[in-house]
Design goal:
The complex is a heterotrimer of chains A (about 240), B (about 950) and C (about 325). Chain B has about 950 residues and is α+β, with helices and mostly antiparallel strands. Chain B contains 25 helices and 39 strands. Chain B folds into six domains: about 190 residues, 5'-nuclease (Rossmann fold), CATH 3.40.50.1010; about 130 residues, OB fold (Dihydrolipoamide Acetyltransferase, E2P); about 80 residues, OB fold (Dihydrolipoamide Acetyltransferase, E2P), CATH 2.40.50.700; about 325 residues, no CATH class; about 50 residues, no CATH class; about 100 residues, Nucleic acid-binding proteins (OB fold (Dihydrolipoamide Acetyltransferase, E2P), Beta Barrel). Chain C has three domains: about 170 residues, no CATH class; about 50 residues, RNA polymerase II/Efflux pump adaptor protein, barrel-sandwich hybrid domain (OB fold (Dihydrolipoamide Acetyltransferase, E2P), Beta Barrel), CATH 2.40.50.100; about 90 residues, Beta Barrel (OB fold (Dihydrolipoamide Acetyltransferase, E2P)). In chain C, helix 1 runs parallel beside helix 7. Classes of the chains: A alpha+beta (about 240), B alpha+beta (about 950), C alpha+beta (about 325). Chain A: Keywords: Cytoplasm, Exosome.
């Protein structure tokens, strides 16, 4: 199948190096300490952060850093077929771990000893690249919660189809069976906190795809930064010229 | 940069899912016109600013008028993306051709991505069907162009054959014309009219060409065929088991008899007669309904069936002339049907009729026009019938204004449609190849029929060649992994006149009494790098094609004949396999390396043979050859013991006049010991390499296998052998080889004949990707080798190029190209190579056939022939000397209406494979020797045919009677 | 315990109006020293004097400060810090807080004060019944639950903060601190509470209720006696309830109006302080908005407009009060 036309357009009309339309909203849930809603095209994700708060199970408490807890889930209505998704299946356990690890790499956990941070990520609609979207949403929610972090964690997937590296695969491209590389990046330091790929790829191609994914991460990070700044500005302005 | 559009689709089997996809609309899509001042110009900006107008085509124009579009007179065409995707969904082949046109910048076809342009995207309205929506999108694109290019010279014309669509376009202010009207307006190119396809959906195009010369008004016309059932009905019928689906294969000798291999029936379904075939053409995927068993028939009298006389009084040109003897099972006409248990139940087989066509397999057909009665006035529209050289294809009615020009020409024609009312399919002319009977034209034709690419190499391909003159550079020598073997005494042995030398050998006696033997293969992959245009072209060509008088190269000439060719006394790069062997031909160790060699002699087979045979010669090279030969004989012996078959093929060799390229003489190809010696080392190299690459790449090695023939496939051979009292054991290749050795007749040729017949039972060996089959299936039956591949002819076979890359990767010299790692693309590659390989063989045989015909044109000879098959009204003979096989009729053609002449009655004894006349005076038995008279006759003008008749002195009385 | 709820999705029109009003509030172009996390902090000309990294910053390479939270950059001499606009309560010594007992432990109560960890209220930091200073005995320890038990709400003051792990210790060694009853708690984001001179505020009639603005974002609304007395009877605590444990209806309504005023302010993201609360209550009275409608988009929009007008009148350039 042709995923990139000779005119250079993908099935949905993007060019190979374009990410999908990105939309984010912050502080969408009032009860949570931080929350964010993120759309990457048709992939829609809600992330919620509680904490840092007292560790709920004292035995898990860490004396020198914060305990990060992450839970990933997919809504029953997130795919074309409505399906009840059991909690704790392999995929969601793996994804929870992946998100937690890439977040832990950014959170300054040593500043928050004996505390716990809960991150809940729910996929409301899945259209490829859920992994990346979850990580981005989690970053935004953490930033909203005022959790100190080294840097934003931006994530983006990239693939390789029809001999072309493609950025930010959607579901159709994702299910083409080509390689699918998800990268999470601390854009400032250009440090990779997550790199996942299941298929084999020649090294030179891999480097091209990785480079593209990293560029995508940076573009997404820039977008998220704008959204955060705007959100912060609104908050600050509304609260008025008052210093705590 | 983009906007978002989302829409809903419900699709996919069983469940209804809501598919939700994004659709981005862009503002950076260019119009592709050089006249435009607002859009950015780039590589794809092709539409000329000087053109009078740009043509914007709709889907049906692209689907049906491809031959017109391919004409060079049509340029500056805008293809909207929506058209391209509709074409892709409906006809892959046309889509490919359209893509080629777009890729050819000189043709100035431009794809306008209207579906993603923010101003030309149209949303499906409520209740609107897809076709209407797409038509609207096309019209929107047209009006957009019109306003976009307003005030500039070229305007835009929508080409559509849908009258309604054209009217709406005019209503919306866009210029629109039918194809026919447009072509008529092109007074500069009147011949374009011939290319206009006659399609059903011409709509209001009353002035169009649909009014046929020989047809009355549609209403009065008789329905000749049953209606094809609709897709929904077919699907339902197939599911219920009422219908059976399969690919239609028409008997090469009788275009009204066809078979459908159906999985649901488990047998082949016979379809007989024009009505039951119901407009299906060879290769179509059809749905068949079985007739009640009492109407079942047997295949008609084998191969000699006369066609139905046509009402027009034109006899079908189907009587079989003699042709070249087939080599293996799949080449033999109707081979598959002979495997059926004919003879039981009165020879009846499941018989059915075509009720619908699931997928058409129309392609372009080469052939000539049937002579027309009456003068074909020049310029007037005529509707002659076209007869394809492929006898499986029905005649095609075309229309032309240049009948006089085309009468004696080989032309190419495409089928457009086949209505129920029309006896023949309707088509249109595409191009002329040349005069009928002309050697060049006929060669061209046979190449075309076998889908062989004879175009010269493109500049992009030639750009991949190293600069000429090329020689081994110091950089090559300096590479640590390239062994310098120029000190070795290497020589090559090839057929006379061979210029693409891809293998050479050396043999050195070692101090320990062993021999070091090297096979050096041209290092083609040093020049053909993966994914370059050169590589892609070679992969597409797959193999060089050898015709009697010419060679169509896989790689450009400089590579084939110079840079890669391991010629004598020049340094060449090679890929070497080097073994150390004991004097009893046991391999002590083997070693693979890229190397530099310098061949000391490029010998021909006769030269090499002469050297070995001449006791006076004792130079080192000759000694090497003798050592090689001695070892080869031992290996050959071992191989035979393992069960390798010594098969035979009726190969012939022409002597060609160097001036006219006409054949001067023909004779059997002589096989010498030298040939066998070289073959042995090549086999050894191939097997060694196969083992090596499979060890490193168990899932993506390109290997070659030869499937074990099924017992049914041997049945004709066994029947024949049994008839002459010989028992063959086909239980294993070893048993077969042994029993073939035992099958000795009275004359020396007898054994060879049996071997030839045995070879015909075999299937073709095929390339495959190792990941697709389990190791036991890798087996090569003919060579009795568990593993085999092709490594030794990279200049002329692409498979070898791939294997070279695999071997180089196995040695860690170069990384394995991505495409070679991928199972799927390897599968496609091996399929493609098998197809090319087979076609190349077919073309080669067709070429020999053609030259045989030319050879016998001016001479009639008598020759000794052997009966290979007995039929109800004659037998088929094989003429070893010329490699010809063809029918000999014993009965005269029955006159129309008259009953068969009782004196001509012959009785066939199937079991003993004999045919005896009623009066018992004449008896012919299979494998008997007869003398036949060979001559060329022209039953119809321009249709020369090789006719075999029994020579007057008839049958020789030898021991088999 | 109700949280301020977002505008109920009722009338589209009202919602649109609210959005518009909010947009006006958010539209100020006043340049604020904002940073996003990960951004380098522009140290300006006096960077060479060396800087100290404060909260919300970290060193990124040599002499380069980087923000670790999104918020406002603050500088006090060489100390540069970034204050997040949202987040858990960060205690300061002397803060008045309202907390809830989560656990009764050895010699201490664990208190939820909306911080990163639970705060501790030591038995030693509590005035025992009887009011006299005396040694805590084992009996006292056994009777801790009689004083405060789980889920009790308590007002207290931050006594000290552990420098190492940030653990917070509270005390109630003043008559005004102690158990809270007969009122309601509203929790808002801590950053909405200004630090004031007086966190125990009695709102004048006609509201006539008392509020405790906990610095941690927990706001207690109860009877006026709470703040008036300046001390409470040891036994009774500060209760609005009569002897029967009942709070009379008028007082309950007044409390609810105040509580909803706090919620309305919080919903709009406006700072919660006594004048603002009073103003919202007055506005609701003026517009004859029922208590239950005070959180509807229509009224919220009115509040937002009023606030915007007020700001306009005062001018954005008003110096920050500290």
């Amino acid at each position: 199948m042709e995923y990139v036309s000779p005119e250079g357009l993908r099935l949905d009309g993007r060019r190979p190096k374009e990410v999908r339309q990105l939309k984010c909203e912050l502080a969408v849930l009032h009860r949570a300490d931080g929350s964010a809603y993120l759309e990457m095209g048709n992939t829609k994700v809600l992330a919620t952060v509680y904490g840092p708060h007292e560790v709920s199970q004292r035995s898990q408490s860490l004396h020198d850093r914060a305990l990060v807890h992450c839970e990933y889930s997919m809504a029953t209505f997130s795919t074309g077929e409505r399906r009840r998704r059991p909690k704790g299946d392999r995929r969601s356990v793996e994804l929870s771990l992946v998100i937690r690890q890439s977040m832990e790499a950014a959170i300054l956990t040593h500043l928050l000893p004996r505390t716990q941070i809960d991150i809940y990520v729910q996929v409301l609609q899945a259209d490829g690249g859920t992994r990346a979207a979850c990580i981005n949403a989690a970053t935004l929610a953490l930033a909203d919660a005022g959790v100190p972090m080294r840097d934003l964690v931006a994530s983006c997937a990239a693939g390789y189809l029809n001999g072309t590296p493609l950025l930010d695969l959607n579901y159709v491209e994702d299910s083409a069976g080509g390689p699918d590389l998800t990268v999470a990046l601390l854009p400032k330091a250009e440090k990779v906190t997550l790199l996942q790929m299941d298929s084999k790829l020649p090294l030179d191609t891999f480097e091209a795809v990785l480079g593209l994914a990293m560029d995508g991460c940076k573009a997404i990070a820039a977008h998220m930064r704008q959204a955060l700044l705007e959100h912060t500005r609104k908050q600050a302005v509304v609260r008025g010229p008052v210093r705590l | 940069m983009y906007q978002q559009k989302q829409f809903f689709k419900k699709t996919r089997g069983g469940k209804i899912l809501k598919v939700h996809r994004e659709h981005y609309l862009r503002d950076d899509i260019v119009c592709g016109s050089l006249a435009c001042t607002t859009c950015a110009h780039g590589d794809s900006t092709v539409l000329s600013s000087e053109a009078a107008q740009y043509l914007l085509i709709d889907t049906n124009v692209a689907l049906h008028q491809m031959d017109l579009l391919e004409n060079a007179a049509i340029a500056d065409v805008i293809v909207p993306e929506v058209v391209l995707s509709e074409v892709q969904a409906r006809n892959k082949a046309i889509h490919g051709r359209l893509r080629l046109l777009v890729a050819d910048k000189s043709r100035r076809f431009f794809v306008f991505s209207n579906e993603h342009h923010k101003d030309t995207f149209v949303k499906t309205e409520k209740g609107e069907i897809v076709n209407d929506r797409n038509d609207r999108a096309i019209r929107r694109a047209t009006t957009w162009y019109q306003s976009h290019l307003a005030g500039k010279t070229p305007d835009v014309l929508l080409l559509t054959n849908d009258a309604d669509n054209a009217r709406r376009a005019r209503d919306e202010g866009a210029a629109a014309q039918t194809v026919y009207a447009y072509v008529q307006s092109r007074t500069d190119k009147p011949e374009l009219l011939d290319f206009v396809a006659r399609t059903g959906d011409t709509g209001g195009e009353a002035a169009g060409p649909s009014a046929e010369g020989d047809a009355g008004p549609q209403a009065k016309r008789r329905m000749l065929y049953a209606e094809h059932k609709g897709m929904a009905e077919l699907t339902a019928g197939l599911q219920k088991g009422l219908f059976h689906q399969g690919k239609l294969r028409v008997n090469r000798f009788n275009c009204f008899e066809a078979y459908v291999g159906s999985q649901s029936v488990g047998k082949e379904i016979l379809i007989q007669g024009r009505e039951d075939l119901n407009r299906a053409v060879d290769g179509d995927v059809v749905a068949v309904e079985l007739l009640p068993p009492e109407q079942w028939k047997g295949p008609e009298g084998g191969i000699f069936r006369e066609h139905d006389e046509e009402e027009e009084g034109v006899a079908e040109n189907a009587e079989e002339g003699a042709g070249l003897a087939p080599e293996i099972a799949e080449d033999a006409p109707g081979a598959a049907l002979e495997n059926l248990d004919i003879g039981k139940e009165g020879g009846r087989v499941p018989t059915g009729r075509v009720v619908g066509i699931i997928k058409r397999n129309w392609r372009n057909y080469a052939g000539s026009l049937e002579p027309m009665k009456g003068p074909g006035g020049s310029g007037a529209m005529a509707h002659p019938l076209f007869v394809s050289v492929d006898r499986r294809v029905p005649k095609i009615r075309i229309q032309t204004r240049q009948l006089a020009n085309l009468a004696d020409k080989r032309i190419i024609v495409a089928i457009d449609k086949w209505d129920r009312t029309s006896r023949y399919p309707e088509g249109h002319y595409i191009k002329t190849l040349g005069d009928i009977g002309d050697r060049a034209t006929e060669s061209e034709l046979l190449l075309m029929e076998n889908d062989i690419n004879t175009r010269p190499f493109s500049q992009a391909v030639l750009n991949c060649l190293p600069p000429l003159p090329w020689s081994v550079s110091d950089a090559d020598v300096a590479k640590p992994w390239r062994a310098d073997l120029r000190n070795l005494r290497v020589c090559s042995v090839d057929p006379i006149g061979c210029r693409d030398i891809d293998d050479a050998l050396h043999c050195t006696a070692l101090p320990n009494g062993n021999f070091e033997i090297g096979v050096h293969i041209a290092d083609v992959t040093n020049f053909v790098h993966p994914e370059t245009p050169l590589d892609l072209e070679a992969a597409d060509r797959g193999t060089s094609v050898y015709l009697v008088e010419r060679r169509i190269d896989m790689l450009p000439k400089p590579l084939t004949e110079d840079i890669c060719s391991l010629r004598a006394d020049v340094d060449r790069l090679a890929f070497s396999v080097i073994w150390e062997m004991t004097p009893s031909a046991d391999i002590v160790k083997s070693h693979y390396t890229k190397s530099i060699i310098r061949s000391s002699a490029a010998l021909s087979y006769p030269e090499a043979q002469a050297r070995m045979d001449d006791p006076h010669m004792s130079d080192p090279l000759t000694e090497d050859l003798r050592n090689l030969n001695r070892l080869a004989k031992i290996m050959r012996q071992r191989r035979t013991e393992r069960g390798a078959l010594t098969l035979a093929s009726p190969e012939v060799k022409f002597e060609i006049d160097t001036e006219t390229h006409n054949p001067l003489d023909v004779g059997m190809y002589q096989i010498r010991e030298a040939n066998q010696m070289i073959e042995e080392y090549m086999l050894l190299a191939n097997v060694s390499v196969a083992e090596k690459i499979l060890k490193h790449f168990p899932s993506c090695s390109l290997l070659r296998r030869h499937p074990v023939p099924t017992p049914q496939m041997f049945e004709p051979l066994l029947r024949t052998a049994a008839a002459v009292g010989i028992e063959l054991d086909v239980g294993s290749s070893k048993a077969l080889a042994d029993s073939l050795d035992r099958a000795q007749g009275s004359d020396p040729y007898f054994n060879k004949l049996i071997r030839i017949l045995a070879t015909r039972c075999m299937t073709q060996a095929v390339y495959f990707c190792s990941g697709e089959l389990s190791p036991p299936e890798y087996h090569h039956y003919g060579l009795a080798s568990p593993l085999y591949t092709h490594f030794t002819s990279p200049i002329r076979r692409y498979a070898d190029v791939v294997v070279h890359r695999l071997l180089a990767a196995a040695l860690n010299l170069t990384p394995l190209p991505e495409r070679t790692r991928d199972k799927k693309s390897m599968h496609d590659l091996s399929d493609g190579l098998n197809y090319r390989h087979r076609n190349a063989q077919m073309a080669g045989r067709a070429s020999v056939e053609l030259h045989t015909l030319i050879f016998f044109k001016d001479r009639a000879v008598d020759a000794e022939a052997r009966i290979v098959k007995v039929r109800s009204n004659g037998f088929i003979v094989f003429v070893p000397k010329y490699g010809i096989e063809g029918p000999v009729y014993l009965t005269k053609k029955p006159d129309k209406g008259a009953g068969p002449d009782p004196n001509d009655d012959f009785v066939v004894d199937e079991e003993h494979q004999t045919i005896t006349s009623k009066d018992k005076r004449q008896t012919y038995k299979v494998l008997d020797t007869v003398t036949v008279h060979i001559e060329v006759q022209e039953p119809q003008p321009h249709r020369p045919k090789l006719i075999l008749t029994l020579a007057s002195d008839s049958k020789e009385q030898d021991g088999f009677a | 315990m109700l949280q301020p709820e977002g505008p109920a999705p009722s009338l589209d029109e009202a919602a649109a109006k609210l959005a518009e009003a909010q947009a006006i509030l958010q539209s100020s172009t006043a340049s604020l020293p904002l940073v996003c996390l990960g951004d380098a902090i522009d140290l300006g000309a006096d960077a060479e004097g060396g800087v100290m990294k404060g909260h919300g910053t970290m060193m990124a390479g040599e002499a380069q400060l980087q923000a670790t939270v999104c918020g406002l950059v603050e500088r006090v001499n060489k100390l540069v810090s970034v204050r997040a606009l949202k987040g858990r309560y960060t205690a300061q010594v002397g803060d008045v807080v309202v907390g809830r007992v989560t656990e009764v432990a050895q010699k201490r109560w664990k208190m939820d004060v909306n911080g990163k960890q639970d705060a501790a209220l030591l038995l030693a930091s509590v005035n025992l019944p009887g009011g006299v200073q005396r040694r805590r005995t084992n009996v006292d320890e056994l009777n801790m639950r009689e004083l405060y038990q789980e889920n009790d709400l308590i007002s207290a003051e931050v006594q000290q903060i552990n420098q190492g792990d940030g653990a917070v210790a509270l005390h109630t060694r003043s008559a005004k601190y102690g158990k809270l009853q007969g009122g309601q708690l509203v929790t808002v984001a801590p950053y909405l509470i200004k630090r004031l001179k007086q966190h125990f505020v009695a709102l004048a009639a006609p509201l006539d209720v008392g509020i405790i603005l906990g610095c941690n974002g927990y706001v207690w609304i109860g009877s006026k006696d709470l703040v008036d007395a300046g001390g409470r009877d040891e036994d009774e605590g500060m209760e609005a309830a009569g002897p029967s444990g009942q709070v009379d209806l008028q007082l309950r309504e007044r409390m609810c109006r105040v509580a909803n005023a706090v919620r309305a302010l919080a919903a709009l993201g406006l700072p919660v302080h006594p004048p603002a609360i009073v103003e919202v209550c007055n506005l609701s009275g003026l517009l004859r908005v029922e208590i239950k409608d005070m959180l509807g988009p229509e009224f919220l929009a009115q509040v937002a407009y009023r606030e915007a007008d007020r700001r306009q009148a005062e001018g954005d350039a008003q110096p920050m009060d500290h």
